[in-house]
Amino acid sequence: MSSTNTSFASLTTSFTTSTSEFICSTCQKRFKKQSGLSRHLNIVKKYNIPRNDLDNLSETNNEKFRSILVYLINRKLPHGFKKGGRQLVSLACTEHQFFNIFKGHIYHHHSNRNVYKCVFQGSSGYQILSEILNNPLWGQKFYDNEQQTYVVLFSDPLQHLKNNLLAIATRCITEGVNTKRRKSNYNPGEVVVEWKIKGERDAKENYCEAGFIYIRFWVKQI
Known about the structure:
Layout: E1 14-16, E2 22-24, E3 30-31, H1 34-47, H2 59-75, E4 85-92, H3 95-102, E5 108-110, E6 115-121, H4 122-133, E7 140-142, E8 148-151, H5 165-174, E9 190-201, E10 207-221
Antiparallel strand pairs: 1-2, 2-3, 4-10, 5-6, 6-9, 7-8, 8-10, 9-10
Protein name: C2H2-type domain-containing protein
Organism: Rhizophagus irregularis (strain DAOM 181602 / DAOM 197198 / MUCL 43194) (Arbuscular mycorrhizal fungus)
GO molecular function: zinc ion binding
């Protein structure tokens, strides 16, 4: 499914809890009243309306860029239980290109700093990214002995790999190893896609800048 044809249906999804809280199912922001959630969704909807100066790119160009993103994500799915954890993909990307791919799924826009942010969570988030990237295996990489490294968006490992004895034995060994990890503002179980301007100024005040896309996620091997 092409992201240029994506409707805003995914931006209107919400649910309530037993304590009558209203929660945006994508960004997990909580509201005491339905009216608060409705205002939030209306604001989010505006983030996904392109400015007049953001022209649509050709679908051929978009497909090539999707393939680049899938390739770079795939390279961040290493073989080895000790190599799991937080990963980052970043590359130069125009605002036009980012909007063409992720329009309809932008949940934050800082207009002064010109920063966009998308959040994808759970199995539904994996499915949405499969449609955006036009590849159902964008977050999975298979190795010998039925081992697999995958982006952590599933609530449970895939059923057909639960009985992988080699993976279970290796996991038991590595779970006893304490590893130090840096604190992160990004949670395991979600994929955060951001676009922002990165600039540099030299000693003579010459300035240059470029837009970059950042994709942050966590991986695990089973």
